[in-house]
Amino acid sequence: MGGNAAICAEHISKDYGAFRAVDDLTFEVFAGEIFALLGPNGSGKTTTIRMVLDILKPDTGRISVLGAPLNEQTKNRIGYLPEERGLYRGVPVLDVMVYLGALKGMSPKEARRRSLALLEQLELAEHAKKKVNELSKGMQQKVQFAVTVLHQPDLVIIDEPFSGLDPVNAMVIKRLLMDMRSAGTAVVMSTHQMQQVEEMADRLLMINRGQQRLYGQVDAVRKRYAAHAIIVEGQGDWASLPGVVSVEPLGETNANGAGVLLHLDERATTDSVLAAIAAAGDMRIRRFEEAVPSLNDIFIQVVEAHHG
Amino acid sequence: MAKAWLVAKREYITNLRRPAFLIAAFGAPLFSVVFMLLVFNVLMGALEEDSLGRIGFVDLSGVLADAVEAPDNFTRLADEAEAQAALDSGALGAYFVVAADYMNTGAVTVYSPSRIPESVTDTIDRFLLANVRHQHGDREVFNRISSPVEMVVHLKDSGRTLDQSAAGGLFLIPSVFALVFFISIQTSSGYLMSGVVEEKANRVIEILVTSVKPLELLLGKVVGLGLLGLTQVLVWLMAIVLFVAFGGEIDFLQGVTVPADLIAITLLYFFLSYAMYAGLLGAVGAVANSEQESRQLAGIISLVGIVPFFFISAFIFNPQSPLVIALTLIPFTAPLSVILRMSLSTVPAWQLVASVLILVVTMVLALWGGARVFRWSLLMYGKRPGLRDLWRVARGQTGARMGTAAVKEQSA
To answer: Which of these ranges, B85-94, B240-249, B309-318, B352-361, has the smallest mean pLDDT?
Structure first.
């Protein structure tokens, strides 16, 4: 296990009575990466997060956070945004932020300065003096996010960062998370929004019924589930190409004509098909890519495989 | 511990700004003072308005021959016919006739178009009494007959001396003390409980426990809200002191002082029983699933505290009875019992010491067990632990069977 891991969990398990919520999970999260924690509802994501944060103790296994078992000093370097979150309602936004910042070890002055800067960045500056319950739900979400990253933590853990946000605000949060990654922060996000994971995450852990199903680089995981097929758009007699077993029309058509999915036999590779198209001379292509399944498809496939 | 102080400061300041608190702390004493003044004024005013206007009298007995101390609105009339005419014309509101054989029979007939207010009959009483006394000399004898006892009560045990007019105040002061005491404790520990319930509901608790040790969090809350309750007590005490200082105007407060030892004991019991209630209600808040549920649980706990009021007659007439002693020793009823007994008479030293010691022990246990339950059940949303689980946790056994080993103390 790497020494510079922000989170290092080894064989952790957790039972609720007879129900095994988390079953022998081992994973690491590194500084400077966005790590996606995926899984259907009730698969053990939140329990895993709570064990990492020492809210729950694992029944077995070991967890170290920022290089050691979680202690009061490392708590100041962690930002956590729980699911189904809220804030103190009848209290001004800035007061809540300064209080929660101070609890993370910031001086009140610094907490105030950072809060105002973040509110500015999130386009909430004019609402700083308003009470939390006077803000819209989306604005409250942004304030909660601001509280999570206020103290510039080395490890940020967010349960469903984008739930309840409109696309514009989701983009703002996404940019902030990507900036934090560039600055070397380890970001863990638990989510159902696969598209965000594809766009943002470097690595992922997918769990189902408390057990690890997929773990590793997002690209590598998708490749592993590749159907050995190629998506092409253009004109030509695709079926005549060597190595193509069958041609499946894709639903998506545009001005350039229909796209098709070319299923390949075992010997054919992407390169060999591309070379054959070039050699044929009478074929035109506008799009040529390996048919990698979306994470969404993989997610459904993995979950159904274990329920079926 | 620096973070516990932050929590304490925050709890104190935010709750101090609550409208509900401001009303309870400042509005209620103000309201009480205004209300009492109003009651006195209205009562005084009512007495005057109740009179029937001019009242005539016809004296057939001679008792009022050279009438003294006649009220301003009394008018002598020559005979009943004249009086009846004046009543009919509205010049009189009523008249009374003192019968010729009054000295033997006391017969007085009152004529009035409507009901005779008590204040009028009292005035007639006093008028006749004054004149009988005037005519028949010996004032001392009459004074004794009309008011046989002018009592001064000297409480040997406490060395307090009260004259009769202060007897009303004797009950007023402990009652007000007890009221202030319980409102403050209920306010503080109620805020503690509803604060925990709120933080659980909005999940801020998860952010808090990933920033602060749960025990520091609870400690901060207990200290901050304790100071809040103390603020409330001090405001009320000042109001009482002011009220008593200006109370010279009001009959039944004359001769009443607020003894220093009573204030000291009140503050001591405030600290101890607040900490006890804080431990218990903090645990209730952590266990309860909703504000409503927590209020019901807290209501039961705090109701026990006012039980001594139900037995107030025992406190007055039989302060050394086993019941009173038991109520003095039981930690939940001790504060009110001791305050009542200290104001009415005195509490033997051994009972006071035993009462304080039992309360201290209970307080420590409540805080300790409360903190464990607090730590353990903070994150159990939607599932209420059974009584047996709570008992096990409060005693320090881990809740492994419940699936949360959260009670295991943090190693770091």
So the answer is: B240-249
- Among candidates B14, B207, B412 on the partner chain, residue whose Cβ is nearest the Cβ of A82: B207
User: How far is A115 from chain B, CA to nearest CA, in Å?
Assistant: 17
Is there a contact between B405 and A57 if contact means CB atoms under 8 Å apart? yes
Q: Tell whether A54 is within 8 A of chain B (Cβ).
A: yes
* Beta carbons of A100 and B207 less than 8 Å apart: yes
Q: List the beta strands (DSSP E) in chain A.
A: 5-16, 19-30, 34-38, 60-65, 78-81, 155-159, 186-190, 203-208, 211-217, 229-235, 244-254, 257-264, 284-290
The mean pLDDT of B119-146, rounded to a whole number, is 78
Separation of alpha carbons B36 and B39, rounded Å: 5
Strands (E), B106-171: 108-111, 152-155, 160-163
In this structure, the number of other CB atoms found within 10 A of the CB of residue B242 comes to 12
A59 touching chain B per CB within 8 A: yes
Residues of B whose CB is below 8 A from A101: none
Phi then psi for residue A163, to 5 deg, are: -65, 135
**Digit-coded pLDDT (tens) for A123-172:** 999 999 999 999 998 899 899 999 999 999 999 999 988 887 888 888 99
Element (H, E) at B35: helix B28-50
Strands B55-59, B94-98: pairing kind: parallel
Cα B235 to the center of its chain, rounded Å: 15
Is some CB atom of chain B closer than 8 A to the CB atom of A102?
yes
Strand partners, A14: A22
Q: Whats the size of chain A, residue-wise?
A: 308
Strand partners, A34: A187
Half-sphere exposure of B42 (CA within 13 A, CB side): 6
Range with lowest mean pLDDT among B16-30, B130-144, B303-317: B130-144
Note the pTM of the prediction, 2 decimals: 0.70
Model ipTM value: 0.80
For residue B248, pLDDT over 70 is answered with: no
Distance between CA A190 and CA A158 in Å, rounded? 6
Distance from CA of B408 to the nearest CA of A (A): 8
**Contact criterion met (CB < 8 Å) for A147 and B412:** no
Separation in Å, CA of A121 to nearest CA in chain B? 22
Query: Does the pLDDT of residue A90 top 50, yes or no?
Result: yes
Q: Which of B1, B198, B211 to probe by mutation at the A interface, max A CB count within 10 Å? A: B211
Structure tokens, B236: 């009320």
Helices B2-16 and B214-245 pack at an angle, to 10 degrees, of: 40
Helix (H, G, I), strand (E, B) or coil at A60: strand
Cβ within 8 Å, pair B406-A55: yes
The residue-averaged pLDDT of B207-226 equals: 87
Which one of B6, B201, B404 has the shortest CB-CB distance to A102?
A: B6
Cβ atoms A221, A195 nearer than 8 A: no
